[in-house]
Amino acid sequence: MAIAIGAAALACGATGAALYRCRPRDPIFEVQNIELKGFNVRFAKLMAVVDAQLVITIKVINPNVAPIEYTSTTMDIFYQGVLLGQAIVEAGDQGPNSKEVIQVQAKLDGQKMTKNLKELLTDVRKREMCMKSVVTIKGHARLWKWTHDFVVHVESTIKVDPVYLVVIDQDNKVHMELAPLVS
C-alpha cells in the first residue's frame, strides 16, 4: 500500500514537472545592432529632407517546447512620441527552445524628425537618444495535432548613441495573449 501511494505521488510530481516545463512562456526580443544603410535626399515644402535607411538586427529567443510560426507584421519606431518610421518583420518560423537573429529594414522619415529638432540636437550633443518601438506579432504553435494561437505585443525603449548608432541600453516589455486550444 505504501509503495502504491509513493508511486502515485511520484507520478503526480512528474506530471506536474512536465506541465510546468511545457507552460507557455514569453519570447524574448533583444535589439543587438542598428546599422545605417544609407540616406535618401528628397525635397518637401521648399526644403531638403534626409531620410535614413537602417538595418535593425534583433535576437529572438523561443523558450517554449513547441515550434512557432508567425505572420508578417510592421514595427513602428517613435522618437519623442512622433512616429518616425516603420520596419517590416517578415513572416517566419522558429524551432523549439531556440535562438535566431533576424534583420529588418527600416526607413526613418527625416521630415518628421524635424518636429523635435531641438530635442534631437540636444540628444546628439549628449550622444544618447531614447527611441521606442512597438510591434504586435501574431502566430501559432503546433504540438502534435493541436494548434495554439498567440499574440505577442512587444514595446521596447532603446537608448542609442545617435552618432555611432550603438545600442546603449534597452528595456523590453512583452505581453503574450494565448487563445484557447484548437485541434
TrEMBL record:
Pfam families: LEA_2. It is a single-pass membrane protein. It is found in: Membrane. Residues 57-156 form the Late embryogenesis abundant protein LEA-2 subgroup domain. SUPFAM superfamilies: LEA14-like (SSF117070). Coiled coil: none annotated. Keywords: Membrane, Transmembrane, Transmembrane helix. InterPro entries: LEA_2 (IPR004864), NDR1-like (IPR044839). GO terms for biological process: defense response to other organism. GO terms for cellular component: membrane. This is Late embryogenesis abundant protein LEA-2 subgroup domain-containing protein.
